[in-house]
Amino acid sequence: MDSQTPNDYKEYFLNKFVNLFQLFTNECYEKVTNTDIKNDLEKIKQLFPKLNYEKIITKMCSNTKLQEGFAYIVKNNFDNALMQKLFSTNTKTWTLMPSFHIDKIFNNVSIENRKKLYDNFHSLHVCAFTFQKF
Predict the structure, then answer these.
(1) Rounded CA gap, 33 and 1, in Å?
(2) Which residue in 19, 94, 99, 126 has the most C-beta neighbors within 10 A?
(3) Which of 11, 16, 43, 17 minimizes the C-alpha distance to 28?
(4) From start to end of 15-108, where are the E strands?
(5) What is the b/e burial string over 32-43, where b = at least 16 CB atoms within 10 angstroms of the residue's CB?
(6) Distance CA 18, CA 26 (A)
(7) Distance (Å, whole) CA 8 – CA 102
(8) Rounded to whole angstroms, how far apart are CA atoms 105 and 102?
(9) What is the maximum alpha-carbon separation in the chain?
């Protein structure tokens, strides 16, 4: 029986992150109605094979305002007025990469879809943090 090394786990969580990121991007694309946002997401989807996922992981893990903002949004049950206020403060907080603006995506979907997207985003976030531990 082969024993698992830290590199095996790191590779596993990187692959899981890639899959979750692509799933999240595809779901965002399906749920938004704004043509400009859809076009941006389509460009990102075309770049999937070339993306530096470790850089995205690092950005997600180091962006504490993103984590705190989402915790506050979830605590307040995705309240529209609260989200508008938070999303109007600093777009860098809500940007995963150029043309991938979480604030614009979440403002462009129904509350029900926000909750679904958040669940996937949260899984992505947990995976990123787990990857960084190895």
Answers:
(1) 50
(2) 94
(3) 43
(4) 95-97, 100-101
(5) beeeebbebbee
(6) 12
(7) 31
(8) 5
(9) 55
Sign of the dihedral through C-alpha 101, 102, 105, 106? negative
Residue 124 near residue 28, CB atoms below 8 Å: no
Dig out the tokens for 20 from the structure.
Answer: 């979750």
pLDDT, position 3: 78
Taking only the tens place, the pLDDT of each residue in 92-114 is: 889 999 899 999 999 999 989 99
> Over 80: is that where the pLDDT of 39 sits?
yes
Examine the pLDDT at 52 and tell me if it is beyond 60: yes
Mean pLDDT of 57-64: 94
Residues written for the chain: 134
Q: Where are the domains of the chain?
A: 6-132
- Rounded-to-integer distance, Cα 71 and Cα 84, Å: 15
